[in-house]
């Protein structure tokens, strides 16, 4: 078989696939959407195993808001939560609190907003791209998003930052609808969605300013927004932004903290110290975004965030830039504004997957562009090869994901602390004081997460004397003073020397199996 014959066969093969997709695009869309839900839903409460530190902090506030209307520090409906002192965005917490109010508190329910918004996200990204590109192109971007490691991993645990990506998708789609249909209520919806996006992740504050500036230039030049439409957009956006502006004014001591029907509190620390002018180092951190994140819960070693074949997005980006500049392609202009408004952060901050999750949808589009270029250039064999590599990578990644993140030693996850606190909660409910020689920074949050300590008790008992010396509720964490051991308390530790001391004082060892030992009388 000569080369020409091979090319003819591959062309016919591609054409059959193309015709099938075009004829059945609605069915394929629904299948992909259902697959995205089932794929992300499977074992979502078990994998990742345990609960992440930030997830636990978020969970404590979710429980408090759902049941008491305050965060764990007795602040009424905060616009920005304190968490461990440097803040946590509010959108995920309020979405979870609604579900908790209806279905009760569990890890499963806590992770549902991540799943639900991610599934809606892939559907909306199809609708957005299909407005400008072929249905085949849009389905490919949708499919690529569903099977990509970054999207799958961010859809399965509760991190506030990960709502930035879907919220930008919803906002951008509404914007496109507004300039296309020129209806004032849609412009109002755009303003509302961009306003809500501010509550998904603090990085959006600057990202949205850049997006507004560039998209504003476009709509003014193209006369696709008049004054009335602008007013319809800006009013809901400003209304949504005002509480966060007040929050920033509190941080800079321009006004006093607010604790009325909503609250703006002074944070003990801010994330300003994370910003720096080491531009070379910061840009270098893009490898955490494009190649492999340092955290295993963001990126499985050997598979990367995009699979390594995903780096073909780079030439796709240049194709898209060319289309935006020379062909005046609006979708390419939009995707590049979207992408570079996020990348700009890497000039002043070290980045990783969760910080820059807002740039991945444009990357999926860029990969679509380079694949389209390959097809248009009639390299059908290369196209088929890319699809095969993606499918093989996907199958191998899923297998590795469920193996690795089913383990009990995931960094920054509870690693058995919740399990032991649940045992203590069940077996020692009447013990007033529990001394826990917990040697991990901020792991005390799992005690509140598991015991469901009320905001009132939390605010009255919380006391922090150091990184490890923290009291909360009936728990006292940190180094146990052997000279102050008393018979009415129980002790949880993994120090053999102190275990011998407790045994010498006639304490009994609980049979519960853990890296920690429980001693009681």
In brief, what are we looking at here?
By secondary structure, the chain is mainly alpha-helical. The chain has helices at residues 3-23, 25-41, 53-68, 91-103, 107-110, 112-130, 135-147, 149-154, 164-181, 184-197, 204-221, 227-251, 279-284, 286-290, 313-326, 330-343, 360-376, 380-404, 417-427, 445-451, 455-461, 496-504; strands at 80-81, 88-89, 258-259, 263-264, 434-436, 463-464, 470-472, 475-477, 490-493, 508-509, 517-520.
Q: Can you describe what's shown?
A:
By secondary structure, this protein is mainly alpha-helical. The longest helix has 25 residues, at 227-251. α6 runs parallel beside α9 (164-181) and α15 (313-326) packs across α16. The strands form three sheets. The chain has a seven-stranded mixed sheet. The relative contact order is 0.11. The chain has 22 helices and eleven strands. β1 and β2 (88-89) form a beta hairpin.
Strand order of the largest sheet: 6-7-8-5-9-11-10
Whole-number average pLDDT? Answer: 94
Helix content estimate:
55-70%
Cα Rg: 26 Å
Please outline the major beta sheet. 7 strands, mixed
* SS strand fraction: 5-15%
Number of strands: 11
Structural class: mainly alpha
**Unreliable residue runs:** none
Distance between the termini: 84 Å
SS element count, helices: 22
Shape: globular
Features:
two-stranded antiparallel sheet; 521 residues; globular; 7-stranded mixed beta sheet; mainly alpha
Q: Secondary-structure map with pairings?
A:
Blueprint: H1 3-23, H2 25-41, H3 53-68, E1 80-81, E2 88-89, H4 91-103, H5 107-110, H6 112-130, H7 135-147, H8 149-154, H9 164-181, H10 184-197, H11 204-221, H12 227-251, E3 258-259, E4 263-264, H13 279-284, H14 286-290, H15 313-326, H16 330-343, H17 360-376, H18 380-404, H19 417-427, E5 434-436, H20 445-451, H21 455-461, E6 463-464, E7 470-472, E8 475-477, E9 490-493, H22 496-504, E10 508-509, E11 517-520
Parallel strand pairs: 5-8, 5-9
Antiparallel strand pairs: 1-2, 3-4, 6-7, 7-8, 9-11, 10-11
């Amino acid at each position: 078989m000569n080369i020409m014959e091979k090319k003819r066969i591959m062309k016919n093969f591609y054409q059959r696939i193309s015709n099938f997709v075009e004829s059945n695009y609605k069915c394929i869309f629904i299948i992909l959407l259902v697959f995205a839900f089932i794929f992300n839903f499977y074992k979502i409460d078990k994998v990742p195993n345990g609960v992440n530190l930030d997830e636990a902090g978020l969970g404590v506030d979710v429980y408090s808001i759902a049941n008491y209307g305050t965060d764990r520090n007795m602040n009424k409906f905060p616009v920005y939560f304190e968490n461990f002192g440097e803040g946590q965005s509010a959108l995920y917490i309020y979405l979870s609190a609604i579900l908790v109010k209806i279905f009760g508190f569990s890890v499963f329910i806590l992770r549902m907003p991540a799943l639900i918004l991610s599934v809606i996200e892939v559907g909306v990204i199809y609708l957005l791209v299909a407005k400008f590109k072929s249905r085949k192109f849009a389905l490919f971007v949708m499919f690529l998003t569903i099977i990509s490691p970054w999207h799958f991993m961010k859809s399965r645990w509760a991190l506030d930052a990960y709502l930035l990506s879907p919220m930008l998708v919803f906002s951008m789609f509404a914007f496109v609808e507004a300039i296309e249909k020129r209806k004032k209520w849609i412009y109002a919806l755009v303003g509302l969605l961009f306003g809500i996006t501010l509550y998904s992740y603090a990085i959006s504050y600057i990202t949205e300013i850049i997006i507004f500036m560039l998209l504003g230039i476009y709509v003014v030049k193209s006369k696709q927004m008049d004054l009335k439409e602008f007013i319809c957009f800006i009013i809901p956006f400003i209304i949504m932004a005002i509480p966060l502006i007040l929050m920033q004014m509190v941080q800079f001591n321009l006004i006093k903290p607010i604790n009325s029907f909503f609250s703006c509190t002074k944070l003990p620390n801010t994330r300003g110290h994370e910003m720096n002018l080491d531009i070379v180092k910061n840009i270098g951190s893009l490898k955490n975004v494009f190649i492999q994140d340092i955290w295993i819960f963001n990126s499985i070693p050997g598979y990367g965030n995009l699979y390594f074949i995903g780096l073909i997005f780079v030439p796709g980006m240049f194709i898209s830039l060319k289309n935006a500049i020379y062909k005046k392609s609006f979708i390419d202009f939009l995707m590049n504004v979207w992408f570079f408004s996020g990348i700009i952060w890497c000039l002043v901050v070290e980045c990783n997957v969760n910080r820059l999750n807002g740039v991945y949808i444009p990357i999926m589009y860029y990969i679509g562009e380079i694949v389209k270029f390959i097809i248009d250039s009639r390299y059908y064999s290369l196209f088929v090869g890319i699809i095969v590599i993606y499918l093989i990578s996907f199958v191998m990644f899923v297998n590795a994901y469920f193996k690795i993140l089913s383990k009990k030693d995931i960094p920054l996850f509870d690693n058995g602390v919740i399990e032991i606190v649940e045992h203590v909660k069940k077996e020692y409910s009447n013990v007033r004081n529990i001394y826990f020689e917990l040697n991990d920074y901020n792991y005390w949050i799992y005690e509140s997460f598991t015991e469901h300590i009320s905001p009132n008790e939390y605010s009255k008992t919380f006391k922090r004397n150091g990184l490890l010396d923290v009291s909360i509720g009936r728990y006292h964490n940190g180094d146990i003073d052997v000279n102050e051991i008393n018979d009415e308390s129980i002790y949880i530790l993994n120090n053999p020397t102190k275990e011998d001391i407790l045994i010498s004082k006639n304490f009994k060892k609980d049979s519960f199996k853990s890296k920690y030992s429980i001693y009681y009388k």
